[in-house]
Amino acid sequence: MTQSWFYKRLGNGLGTKILRTWLVYSPTKGAAYCFCCLLFARADGHNSALTSSQGFTKWKNIERMDAHENAPSHRACFADWKELERNLRTNSAIDIEVQSVYATEKQKWRYVLSRISHCIKFLATQNLPLRGHRENQCEDVGNIGNFLGLMKLVANFDPIIKDHMTRSRGNPGSTSYLGSRTQNELIHLMAGQVKEKLLRKIRKAKYYGILVDSTPDLAHREQLSFVLRYVDVDYEQKKAQVRESFLGFVQVHEKNAEALVATILKNLRTTSWISGTAGPNAMTMPPSWPVTAPV
Questions:
Q1: Where are the domains of the chain?
Q2: Is the Cβ–Cβ distance between 222 and 253 less than 8 Å?
Q3: What is the pTM of this model?
Q4: Which positions fall inside the TTF-type domain (predicted)?
Q5: pLDDT tens readout for residues 197-230
């Protein structure tokens, strides 16, 4: 398909070319489509490859392009498309009201989510738990948790959040983004951003050491903690500082050297390479883990 396909040459003897605004090309499928016919095609309209899901791919048969363009059904769809375009431009379409309501609703939810995420970020930064013993806004249950308690405090000074909390209390099954699932998702996203920032510093330092240790949790699952030690250099201030950054816990199913090495290497593929390691009882590790040594 060449660029000339997107232009129609008028037979006025002047060689005038008009852009075919209705013609679009999909690089993914390698096919051409008629935009207006895909949107406004009628059941009894003209069948054409340009309106099918496969699209038009027979590039040697350009006369089919002209035949589609001259078909009455295409001209009707093109007219409907331009009519809608004109109405939207002059704010005279019925959809304008729907779009206005949608835009207002979207802005409101962005505002609410912004306040929710800031409250979660504050509690996480202060190392405070979010959940309460009973998180029921409809009843006076005492301690509903730090997160909902902080949101209620914000609602005293924010009319939008106050309205949101009131609606959520009156409709327990409605979408509120105040539940534990939303809290966990936002914490996970924030943790990913923090981890990525730390990894950028570590990649910049290039050399780093690994400190790992494992301990069972309340469910008796072995959790391996990851800490990377590196030198953080500030070239502008001409200062260097040794830092240790905790990257998270990884569950391990076996504590032998081979399994621990595989777990460590799997979680370090996105960083650079290892210069030293330290671990619990490093001197007692078997020789099958050659990279483990006391540091």
A1: 3-89, 96-178, 198-284
A2: yes
A3: 0.57
A4: 7-93
A5: 888 888 888 788 888 888 888 888 989 888 989 9
